[in-house]
Structures
1.
Amino acid sequence: MGKRILVTDFDDTLAQTDANVIVKKASGKTVIMDPAEYAVYEPQEGDNFDFSQFDQLINPRPIQRFVKILKHALSGKADRVVVLTARGHTRPVAQFLKMHGITRNVAIAALGDSNPEKKAQYIEKQIQNGYDRVAFIDDSPKNVAAVSKLKIKYPKIRLLVHQAKDKPEPETQPDSKKTGETLTKEKRANQQVDVRPLETKDELQQAKDWIMKKHYIKRWPSAVQAKLGVYVGDKLEGVLLYGATIRPTSGTEIFRDSERKPIMQNNQMWELLRAYTTEESKKEVPNLGSMVIAKGNDYIRTKAKTKDGKQIKAILTYADSDVGHTGSVYKATNATFLGKQTPQPVFIVRNPKTEEQYELRTLTSLNKKKLEDAGMKISKRMGAGKYKYVYPLGKDQRERDELMAHLAVPMYDYPTGKEGDQQKEIPNPAKEKMVKKQTQPQQTPKSGGEVLKNFFQNAKVLNPDTGEEILVRSALKYDKQSKAYLAAKKSVDDFTKKHNVRIN
């Protein structure tokens, strides 16, 4: 019968997500591409690629046909099933599979490289390992072409190569009544969404008007440290406000080391204080909410600093159950749910002359007196409690995992918002991994050959041309004058010197 293996891609094969490739051209222009567009893109000289959005699972929608094929293979139709992705981390893929009840018997291989030859090399290795019936599914024509060449090299191998072209179904399929022109407009808008600092005084005023008049809280928050505009094309269509957490000690309370000591300063955790997008933009751009949150997080992660110049390590945010919010947009962007907060009093401030009123979550004695002196009437009610979420940031996935390993409070399964919904505490995978690593028995020293083998399997360096990490073994195949090759060569030299081993 032979050994059977199914190898399938992830992005635009098993799932469609809102993760995009950001390309900074030599001209200074920034181009945003989804995986399908990147799959056929021919890189130009001077291109600088940013793949950081693929460290997350952003608003995933299953492509049912291929999810069913994968499950069918797991039922015994294949000896091995692999999800082979160009992403640099396995975690987003594992999260998606878990969402669809797939938790066992699937291997996830994260190449951290979009070069089609890498997938071809992986398939060839499986053939060399004895698999003689191989099925490969991928949306990229380049990947399909690279793997198809193996049919000539291995004519006795039954190699089935299929290019995936399906889209998510059924709930996310475009309305059949929409015209091709309408869909093109939506696609174009989707590609042009950007989150960046507000550019003019007029835009700042527009943002204030939105928050004061259309946001449900109708108050501009204090301690705002980042005012970001949501731009669809060149038009301002929303605003994100970040700043100090309402509870000043949140940062040092939520993340602590094994001795319960804080691992960050309080000002290194910010709060998403307000988020607003126009109704028109939400109609024009599918999944705008999750896209905006992801882009805002990425901006804070890469560009924002505390007043004393330190990195922002986490973002706290809340969903207000008083107005029916459960945090669906935070769920879609893989925020960690920290539970529902104890109900707190809400202060209702009413102007008796105009009958206008607004609500405050906090009210100091001094501010209360000022409002009363101005003729305002103040009453109080108990709120229903807020849903609390946190995003670990960090410069890369390793640093984010380390932060999560030091989460000092419980994490819970996402709420449904239904009456009687009970909070279910769930394990912290990062913390479990850290404990397991710490409790593992000390292994006998490895031989020089084993040390080198482990190094070349896992070691990465920063590619100065792209700003992204790349495997050392991949960088050593670059032109010897390239910055990536030189960085990899130095890494090898430093490693062999440190461990007193040499390469034959």
2.
Amino acid sequence: MEATHALQPTDALHTMRTQTVLVAGAGVAGRGVISMLCALGARTVVVADDNTQALSHIADGGETSLRLLGVAEAVDSLGHLAPQLVITSPGWKPESPLLVRAAKLDIPVIGDIAAAWLVDQAGTFGEPRTWLAITGTNGKTTTTAMLTSMLVADGRSALAVGNIGIAPSAALAAQHRGEPRADIFVAEVSSFQLHWAPMFAPSVGCILNLAEDHLDWHGSYENYCADKAQALTAEWPVLAADDADVLATARARHVAARSAYTIHDPEEVASLEKTTTTLERATGVRDGRLVEVIYGSDGEPNQIVDLAPAQGISPPGPAGLADAAASAAMARALGVAPEAIASALAGFQVQAHRGQVVLDHGGVTWIDNSKATNPHAAEAALRGQRNVIWVAGGQLKGAAVDGLIRAIGGGLKAVVALGVDRAELVAEVSRQLPDLPVTVIDATDPEEAMRAVARAAHELAEPGDSVVLAPAAASLDMYTGMSQRGDLFAQYAVAYAEAESDA
């Protein structure tokens, strides 16, 4: 689909306004695209989705003709409908019959992020916004929220969009309806969205980390990394200096990175061969402070900028510190004042299920990291911690856990395992750490299972310990999603604590 790469903002805008456009999917992203197309005064929009409930949420398009079709009907009718552009929701795989059919008919296919970016770059809704793109296997939501807080603290008109907050297309449509304009879009973007956005070029872009994930969608880890790399087409790419796969991906694409971040001393970054160019800035930790080193043209540091304390950052631990360093590096690329960075971090509280402390009782800290749905995320959540009662298990999706257990085993006090793939997890723990206490929860009812988890953890925990839900696995074997899993973990942790207090 070479035509997709060649799409220019003005051409794309003309197509959206004057030709038939097909929107694949009527979920959050799809509805945002539809609202933007209607705001543009699009002539005809065809929506393909089998979820009739989702379709029912689509409002009247005003002057735009809206036609709603099931997916199979849309596939069969594609030649007759003759759309000049397909805008797909991120969950649709490249091998989806509708998208394959569109490719055979030489119809350009782009994603929701690409559509919003093209429209914005065309100046349709005023001066084009500054786009900041955050992607990675883990930490995207926290980093996006942190960065937005820093920008707002600096007096900037910034809005978190993408997989956090509002779809950027919906934000553009909202402005058309008279809502306040945001001059900066801080976009959390997935590998799916980037796959369908080969022309996307943000002002600042960062890949936080890379680990095997969504391989069923991308087909291979190499393809996954390649799609993530679209974020590094930014005018100001920011590199994760502590992640070898990010660095390798950047080197392979000759990324001219302008800054990098680390949870270590930032001056160590410049000495490493990471890019084809000399870094201008590096953000990291020195003497308990988050600092930025600014380098001269000779590669030598000529200025140290103090940004914020490295302690007290939410979420606690290396993962939260890495997110803070990444956010600060991107904020500094836009000239955000150090005082704004410090203020934002001091007031920042991580969103639910991302390292949230849900209970402090009897000297024991209970942490909900239900969002850690793969081994890489679980390692980030547990790295550097000690005296941990680890609550883990669920759907491993074929992911290996041997490396995870090697990385975190020294900090574990006990394991409480649940979920469909608990036996695989327990077997690996027993192989590597044969003396580590392991409690296996066989219950499959979601509430019964988490009640048993809380009971076991309370019995194991002593003052100074942490009980950490970092499953390293997906949740849909028992739960409606990671949110329900985390909510029940918090609920029963508190319930047992209250029962102890009443006793």
3.
Amino acid sequence: MTENLAEQLALLPEYFRGHLALTLIALVIGMVISIPLGVWAAQAPRVKRPLLTLVSIIQTFPSVAILALVVAMLGGRIGSLPAIIALVLYSMLPIVRNTVTGLENVAEEVVTAARGIGMSPRQILTKVRIPLALPVIIAGIRTATVWTVGLATLSTLVGASSFGNYIFTGLQTRNLLAVTVGSLAAACMAVILDSLIGGIQWLAANRNAGVQTARYRAVKVLIMIGLTSVLVVSGYSLLPDRKVDFVIGGKGFTEQYIVAGAVEEVLQEAGFTTEQRLGLGSEVVFQATANNTIDVYLEYSGTVWSNLMNREDNPGREAVMSEVEAYLAAEHGMANLARLGFQNLYALAMRREQAERLGIRTISDLKPFAEGLVAGGDLEFFGRPEWISLRDTYRIDFAEKLTFDTTLMYTAIAEEQVDVIAAYTTDGRVAEFDLVILEDPLNAIPPYDGFLAVSGDAMDNRLFVETLSALAGKISDEVMRNANRLVDVENRPVTDGVRFIREALTE
């Protein structure tokens, strides 16, 4: 426990820096865009309804979908930029809405009096309407701040550092302490920033009557100290990141974290500086490698074959790997640097007791029962070509199909919430939960050789290529399964899984 806590706290400065930078940049940009739009809408009735409708519609889009769309529009670019764009879009609604509301609620007699003393429309706006509406506008900024801090955790999915690194890694590796640290850190940041902006709101609301009071002066001093502290920390957060030689990517499950950690250690021992960007979606990490934002990550031949090449046939393990390599080189300038030696196949799995009771050993045997069963898959499976191939080849479907975080998927079948899951053949939880992998006699699922997908730029570094080429064929199915088991079943840190892999490499 103590070792785990120390490991999590050691990561806190990096994640704090990333989260704060994302939040502040997005808020500043959001205010610069939203306040003028709100002023415009308040003064132009024809603009008001369409504008508020538009920003409201943006708010209804799932945040993960917004992130994915932004990454796609940026040509697969990952990191802070797509995260900031998405956060800006989400921050707009409360700021625009409160700006309009605040300006519209200024008493008409005040405006009339200002007009009566000869003020121009511009002067009325800047010297009367906006100052009086300021507390309401700040309330919108306050709401946007809390939303932004919370949503910034999702930036991990597009390769930006944040407290989300704690949360997503912890969920995938069953490290509840990491989830707790990330959640508490985000909550504390939200409370602190909300309190600061709330203080500014109070000052704005009481600036006329309260200037002479001791309370007003005390709050003003506290707010100044708080803002100064935030600005100092923000300055640190916005410092350029250290230059690294290579960026190691990874998808969002345990095996990816372990292999990424092993690759990083091997590269560091060769004298390179590295950085990890993990928890990415399959399409995100692939596109980031294709455009040289990421240098190396663990990929699977079946993923490229089905999802990117749109192939539904299965000519065999070697033929698939050969065609995948040719496709990567010709279409994306990427390469298979090292075929690691293991396969992590998608496979349908059932509880052993239920499978034996129903007499199910293969996916074909499943067909008479499928319409009365509930199936569970990871967040991608039921949208992937592999499921479509299974469904069409065996002509099966289920009464209900549920999606889960990987860890929760195994919990669901153990607790009999689902009957069938899309398991992984190198997952140690298959044995731990006494599951049976159903045979695939019609070969609907393609082979899934794990290999190191490498960017074109990284391939130009000879030492890099030589260093990682030494990993070829060194990680067997059993080794990978046992490394995963240490993390997923025994709840040990990812570093223990990395250590297990490294020991296997030296044998």
